[in-house]
Description:
Order of helices and strands: HHHHHHHHHHHHHHHHHH
GO cellular component, one term: plasma membrane
Distance between the termini: 39 Å
Pfam families: MFS_1
Number of strands: 0
Low-confidence stretches: 1-12
CATH architecture: Up-down Bundle
Main location: membrane
InterPro entries: MFS, MFS_dom, MFS_trans_sf, Sugar_transporter_CS
Oligomer: single chain
Membrane topology: Multi-pass membrane protein
CATH topology: Growth Hormone, Chain: A
Largest sheet: none
CATH class: Mainly Alpha
Amino acid sequence: MTTEPLTTGVAPDVERVQRRTVGVLSGAVALGGLGITVGITVGGLLARDVAGTDAAAGLGQTAGVLGAAVLAVPLARLSDRAGRRAGLAAGYAVAVGGAVLTVVAAALSSLPLLLAGLFAFGAATACSLQARYAAADLAVPERRGRALSLVVWATTVGSVVGPNLAGPGADLGRALGLPALGGGFVLAAAVLAVVAVGLQLALRPDPLLLARRLRDGAGPAPVRPRRATRAALAAVWADPGGRLGIVAVVVSHAVMVGVMVMTPVHMGHAGGHDDATTLRLVGLVISVHVAGMYLFSPLVGLLADRVGRRATVAAGGLLLLAAAVIAGTAPPEATARLSVGLLLLGLGWSCGLIAGSTLVTESVSAEVRPTAQGGTDLLMGLGAAVAGAVGGPLLALGGFGLVAGVSAVLVVPLALVWVRR
Length: 421
């Protein structure tokens, strides 16, 4: 394990390091969010264009979500062994490779290569999510929810701007002789490369390694058994709060992805608009959605700390249901109504993610937290991947209303766990 100098003193220096850590992480996810949401906005549309079917749009988004889920575990293990800096920088570097591969796939019109690129690109989402846990490594318990939420909030900066770069990205793609939608991933690769380098240089001292040394001294990192993720998740599930936290995170993310990834395809069925206008409207709606996800997260974190994690989870579930009703009954051309529905969808996700992640963090000892957090993100991503995979067939079978209705049903397990806690 890499050793780093301890700060002199205790409380004042730890507070200073914590402020610096949150600042660095916030800057990274803010910039990284720009690249991620460009990919989210055009990834499904690019897959649809390459394959020629709406169902392929769901496959494209699912590949990215599945990549975020599967890659969360090795990245968490790397963080466990070598610190948050190593795990996050490596993950963003993998995402850069995925973006480059996606551009090549677009140029070759190869769906298998495209799906592989989008899978690797999902590492950026995994890093963005794991950064929230890094913000909590040095935080005191009564401020843990707010520390976590501040990093989630920082994603607003890039994520709201990102979808609106779909148009300029298309211009760049055409200028480079690529399919128009491939240009967005050129921008994403450049942005995420800057993030990877920035984290490697600026996230010092490493918050996880420092927290461990302050607690245990500068001993070597414990060796984890091969099935450490399963054991860590079992420990979370054994705690009533941890159980609610896992279900809240998984359900919130699955419902959000299930509705969100099919929204651009649904809007693409509107008549009376050319492709450029449709792309701008899609960017607008996704920007509103992303604002709901991230813009109010400090208030959500404050709510989780002051009112309670359980109440915040309940509020999130109700918001998800309202979002499914409003968005699911909106026709493709109803941009304002879809914006309202997607705004509520983002707010519901924020409540479930922040309160649920805090519950998971608090349910296990510090020794297994990174592994438990990575395992939780794996389950979260797998649930979202399933939701994204069935979105295309559901859209083809019964329209966007069926997609939203099935997504809303996923809130039922969360309600059952909440009542029984």
